[in-house]
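Board notes (copied after class):
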Amino acid sequence: MKRRQKAFIVTIVFQSLGIFFCTQAFAQEGVQTYSGDLWSRSTLTGDWGGARNDLAKKGVTLDLNLTQIGQGNVSGGKSIGWEYGGRGNLTLNLDTQKMGLWPGGFLTVEAEGTFGNSINAKTGSLMAVNSNQIYPMPNSDQFNIPNVTFTQFFSHYVGVTTGKMDTTSGDANEFAHGKGDTQFFNLAFNINPVALVTVPYSTLGAGLIVLPTSDPNAALITVMAMSSDGRANSDGFNDLFKGNTTYAASGRLRTDFFGMTGHQSVTATYSTKNYTSISQSLRLFVENRSIQEKDNSWSFFYNFDQYVYEPRKGSGQGIGMFGRFGASDGNPNPVHYFFSIGLGGKGVIPRRPLDEFGLGYYYMDVKNPNFTGPRETREFLRDEQGFEAYYSFAITPWMKLSPDIQVIRPSQKEVIKLRTGDILGRPVPTVVREDIDTAVVPGLRLQVIF
C-alpha cells in the first residue's frame, strides 16, 4: 500500500496550466517593492541595499521561502506518532521587455528541496495530509528543478508557453490552492485528485494561451500537451518521444455574482499512455506471463470560488466559499469521483489584514483494485473523506504561523502485521489484520519568506 500511495501522490493533478503562466506574466508588469523596516516589509532580507528593487524594475525577481511543519497522528490511522520536516523553494522570474530585450517574453525557473519526514504514511489515506512534504519527490530528501518555462505573448490576447512545467500551478482557487505552504495542508484541498494518474507533477509540455479580453484575470482559455511520464528529478527528454502524451483543455471565467468577485473553471484531460489496470486476471497472468494493461485515461473537473463578503471589491480580502468536483474513468485511476467544499477568509479581523483561515470537507469515491482468481478478491480500500481547519497568523508580512487540525477517514481499511507468537505465547509467526480507524491529525506550520 505504501508503494501505491507514493505512485498516486507523485502524479499531481493538472488544470488550466496557462492560468499560472498568464497571470504570472502580467503580474510582472507591476514592480514589486521590497523596501520597509523589518516588521513591515514583504521579505525578511528586504531590498538588499536597494539592489533588489533595482533588479525588479529591470525585470528580474528572485524569491525564496522556507516552510516547516510539525505534525502528528494522535488517534486512529495506521500508526501513532509525530514527524517534522520542511521544504525550501527558490523562484526566478525574468521579464524580457523590462530587461531591454523584446516585449512579451517571461522566463520562470523554480528549484525546491525537502528535508525531514512527514506523517503521510501513518494515516492510511490516499490524500497526503502534508502536501508540502511530497514536492519535489514524495518521501525523500531531494533538491530538484521542477519548473523551467518560457512564455511568449504575441499580443494581449494570444501567447504560447513551453518547457518543463510545474503543473500544480493550475487548478487555481482563491481559498484552496498551493503546495500546502500557505493555505490548506491536505492535498485534497489544493488540487483535484481525479487527474492523479494522467498528469505528472513536473513534465515537459507546451500550450496555447488565449485571452478573450486583454485582462488575464477576466477570462482565459488554454490548450496544452505534455508528456505523461515526467518526473521532477529528470529532465524528461528520454521519455518525450515514447508516445505517452496528456492533452488538456481548460477555461476560466471571473464572475460577479451578488456584486462580488468569484471564479469558475472547467478542465478536461486525456492521456494516450497505457497504464497498469486495477483489474487483474490470474488466468491471463499465468497464460501470458504479463500484467493486464488499460489503454488511455481521462478526467474532467470543475472548480469555483466565490466571495460572499467582500468589503472592498478586488481587494483580496473577505469571506468566501470554494468547491471542486471531478470524475475519471475509474480504471486505471482508482479515484472515480471527488468533491470538496469549504469556507475561506482573508483579512477579516480588524488590524489583521494578512491573516487567513479555511474550513473544508472532501469526499473521494475510490475504486477497489480486484484480482480475479480461485478466490474472491478481498477489498482493502474504501471511500475516503476528511475535514480540515486552519488559521494562519501573520506575525509579520514575511512570517506566518498556522495551526491546523484534520480528521480523516482513510481509504485503507486495514493494516496487516506479522506478530511472532500466538495467544499462548509460543514463537509462532502469526498474521494479524488490524482495522484502520479515523485519524486525527493536528499540526503547526511556520513559513518564512526571505
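Comment from the instructor: The two ends are 38 Å apart (CA to CA). Residues 115 and 141 are 5 Å apart (CA to CA).
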